[in-house]
## 1
Amino acid sequence: MAQVKEVVTAALADLANHELPLLEGFRGLFGRLVSMHEADPDLTRALSEESMHLATSDHFHKDDEQKYIQITAQILAARPYVRRGDHTTMSHLMVQTTETLSRWMVHDAPPELDRSAATEEAALMLTRYVCRG
């Protein structure tokens, strides 16, 4: 969980940097998460599965997740080219999507999947979801 916090904190700092395009920030987020899972796939799979079972009683994880959602909503609201809408709901969807896709890419994707291509597509997906036009 400490590694996840480090990755997410660094990614949120990138996303808050208005000089860095959101696409670059999302690339960094997915790249870091995938790298973290790849570093020790057996351990991260076990911890991911365990954390999902404990999610309803794990207030620490839920508090962190809620904090990430609030920060992400603030980041979206501050970016001039992010579309209008409910940024908190958008952030909930983005957090769940990011968490699920990064796990899937390492643990459950077909072996022939090109992870760098999948990371790029995931970053594009989030960028297109939040940006106008």
## 2
Amino acid sequence: VDGMMPYANKKVRQAIAMACNNAVCLELGYANQGEVARNQHVGPMHPAWADVPALPYDPAKALEMITEEGMADFEFEITSIDDDWRRNTTDAVAAQLRDAGFNVKRTIIPGSTFWNDWTKYPFSSTNWNHRPLDTQILGLAYRSGEAWNEAAFSNAEFDALLAEANSIADADARREVMAKLQAIMTDEGVTLQPYWRTVYRHSKPGFV
């Protein structure tokens, strides 16, 4: 599809990540109730998380990159569900891209419609609930050919490393492989995963 081709360009994907300050996404999207993430979909709460740096926040360089790739005039349509923090976070992404000089169109869709086509939008936001192991969301959302791989990411080296990581029970040993996986997530600009939400449970003793 012609409209999706810009996202096949790794430099365009990197530029999108570099134009967004993830701390701003957390502040405006979820009132700072969480932790800033690095677009790797593996975090410090996971046992084998590796301390791999994110791409630098550099909106001027981001604009330079999309201009070099002939995408300065391309309209980036960003779709989200009409649902509080997901809508607000996506608004924050759109605003930052506009501030960097990107041409952005925002589309907001009600939940009853959004989930019918959630894997089909060229550029959209979804939420992933927590999985306890570092390899789990990578397997569900980024391994080649998976039903929930909304980014249509397909990378043979990534798939092989993920299989290797899944074969290592010891977290410290697995961390060496996770570092390579997280570096691929960063370098390929696969996802803009700006933060981890803190989820609260309120309870009072005596109530059932």
## 3
Amino acid sequence: GILGMTMVASAEPVTNIGIFTDGTPFTNGGFDGYGNAYSYQTLGFSQTLPWNGVTFDLGSPNQPNVLVAGGQTIPVPQGGFNVLNLAGAAVNGSQQNQQIRLNFSDGSSVVWTQSFSDWGGPQNYGHESIISTQSYCDTYSGSTQPFTNHIYGYSYTIPAGKTLASITLPTNQNVRFLDLQMSFSTPVNLSNSYTSWGIANGTKSVNKGEGFDSGGNYYYNGNLQS
């Protein structure tokens, strides 16, 4: 998982054990810091989780496997990748408009502003997908508790011509990550395969009057550019 990478920390990294095997008492606070954790059983006894063309490494149960966001700067794998993928969730409520700084090899950087849903309450934020859903969680006493919980995936496309060197996490301990993976995506040109007219300027007459819905209605180009 993310803990297997070398960290260059601008703040001391804080790690939690957030995934346990059922029946294991714990005292470290679990995933949410209040004695609740993901169940290894509900994750299918698997340390991996596929999504968006990558395979997240969730780490071993009952061992440190969660990174608590505290302003850490984390180097990312190199190799021509152009998509950053994160697995994690917020705790103690959704955490909106968190800033992840992407640091590029040329010394420049950009801020990715991302909202994170609470692990028990999906808000369907942009760049956020549910990649795993579980029906119960483990508690600090070693028991289980009915509680629908989730792991979310987040992705960000690196600007063309840039090479991502590292990311700096938000300083918010209610944002927690299970893994980071880089991937490569290739754009596909569909211009020779289009079959209808779906975008128009407001005053322009468009061929056949089909529109995006085949009923004469179109996306307005001015809105798409705003």
## 4
Amino acid sequence: AGADGVIEVPGEIETIQGAVDAAAPGDLILIAPGTYAEAVDVTTDELTIRGLDRNEVVLDGQFELDNAIRVVGASGVAVENLTTQNYTKNGVFFTGVTGYRASYITTYRTGDYGIYAFDSVQGQIEHSYTSGSPDAGVYIGQCFPCDAVIDDVTSEYNGLGYSGTNSGGNL
């Protein structure tokens, strides 16, 4: 990142994955409007990944890529203000993390879940829309206590609006 802790995609680094790989904890990744055919893996703590326009920053899996953004064991990551579509698995996927947030996310046509938090605690999913997931639009599960909040989410035209297998405790 520059001295300002902000990495601009594609202005400074061409891909979202490239920006995530270059980022340090506490950095902000700002994504300009466009369509990105990427499956992004995040393993760095305390990143914020933010689209500049929820409807114009689109991660498109083209029915070939598995997850739009997968946060693996990285705590304190926020994903904000973007759309994911056409992934074979999930839109935004948090797994094995403490502290996560998905805000102002839109997901369309995923193979499993729209926004998926598995074995993750201290989370927040808010101001989002999920549609077209054969399992659930939103999932928080495999956690106890989950210490998680879902607020202002519309989940429609999915197998389930919400699924929470093996979950509870401040949920």
